[in-house]
């Protein structure tokens, strides 16, 4: 069979389709349950051709997360503009939906996936990832009507990611946690985060 020649435009289109398809699958069934084979077969290319775009699955995950960021921000804005929700209800629902991302179409990294991606990223790309993450969480704070600062963004990032990753880590990564109390634990964390955000909002709204 003769080798197919792809133009640069074709390659850019296929690359975009891989990222988009990867995000669709990961947001629906979870990152760890999404395989490279599922992605390239859905796009209609070979395994070998897939790896000419992304040397590893982790490289595609990073691009998919970048694609997801504006969608997450838009979802936060939608909740804040919902006349049927109070400010607190909108914030609570946003955090809750992120913690249960696979049920709401939001891809969130597990602890293991964070470690794998960190090992793959160069120092420069790690800084780019952190900066994009910092910008996203800052924009979410401002969407909540909270004046963002480096300290507030850092705290909000850590508190939010802690709730998200712990929910995914029980019981496999954190076997001594009690899985039967995980939903109640997540709700407690979300309440505490929402309390902290409300205090920030009341102290200096934008």
From TrEMBL:
Taxonomy, superkingdom: Bacteria
DNA-binding region: 35-54
Record keyword Transcription regulation present: yes
Residue span(s) of domain HTH tetR-type: 12-72
Record bears the keyword Transcription regulation: yes
Keywords tagged on the record: DNA-binding, Transcription, Transcription regulation
Record protein name field: TetR/AcrR family transcriptional regulator
């Amino acid at each position: 069979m003769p080798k197919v020649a792809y133009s640069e435009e074709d390659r850019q289109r296929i690359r975009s389709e891989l990222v988009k398809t990867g995000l669709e699958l990961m947001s629906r069934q979870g990152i760890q349950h999404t395989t490279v084979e599922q992605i390239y077969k859905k796009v209609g290319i070979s395994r070998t051709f897939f790896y000419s775009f992304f040397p590893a699955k982790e490289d595609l995950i990073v691009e998919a997360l970048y694609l997801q960021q504006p969608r997450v921000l838009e979802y936060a804005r939608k909740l804040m503009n919902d006349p049927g929700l109070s400010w607190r209800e909108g914030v609570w629902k946003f955090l809750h939906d992120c913690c249960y991302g696979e049920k709401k179409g939001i891809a969130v990294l597990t602890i293991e996936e964070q470690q794998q991606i960190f090992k793959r990223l160069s120092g420069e790309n790690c800084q780019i990832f952190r900066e994009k993450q910092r910008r996203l969480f800052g924009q979410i704070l401002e969407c909540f009507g909270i004046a963002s600062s480096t300290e507030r963004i850092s705290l909000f990032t850590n508190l939010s990611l802690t709730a998200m990753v712990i929910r995914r880590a029980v019981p496999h990564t954190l076997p001594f946690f009690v899985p039967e109390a995980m939903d109640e634990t997540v709700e407690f964390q979300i309440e505490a985060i929402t309390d902290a955000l409300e205090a920030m909002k009341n102290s200096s709204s934008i």
